[in-house]
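My main concern about presentation is that the manuscript never shows what a single data entry looks like. For the editor and my fellow referees, an illustration may be useful. For illustration, here is how one protein appears when written out as sequence plus C-alpha cells:

***
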Amino acid sequence: MLLALLALVARADDLEKGKSIYVARCQSCHGATGRGDGPASAAFVKKPRDFSAREYWDAVTDDQLRLYIVEGKPGTIMRGFPMADEQLAMLVMYLRSFPTTAAPPTP
C-alpha cells in the first residue's frame, strides 16, 4: 500500500515537472490546453498540433513523440528542443495527459 502511494506521489510530481517544461517550451504555440491555439499560433499558416485530439494519440508512439520534441518535425514550424532524457520523459507523460484533461472543442 505504501509503495503504491509513493508511486502515485512520484507520478504527480513528474506530471507537475512535465507541465512546467510544457509551459516554458511548448505553451506559446500549442496553448494552455494543448489545442494548438497558443498566442504564437496566430502567426502560423499551419496551426500547431492539437494535443487534445484522441486520433493523434492513437497514431503516435512515445518514441515518435520524443523524436519530434528533440529534433523537430520536418515540414512544420516545429523546431527541436533538446533536453535531458528525464525531462523528456516527464514532458511526454504530461503531453499524454491532454486527451483526458483538455476541454472538448466548442461546436
Observations:
- The longest helix spans residues 2-25.
- The CA atoms of residues 9 and 34 lie 24 Å apart.
- The mean pLDDT is 86.
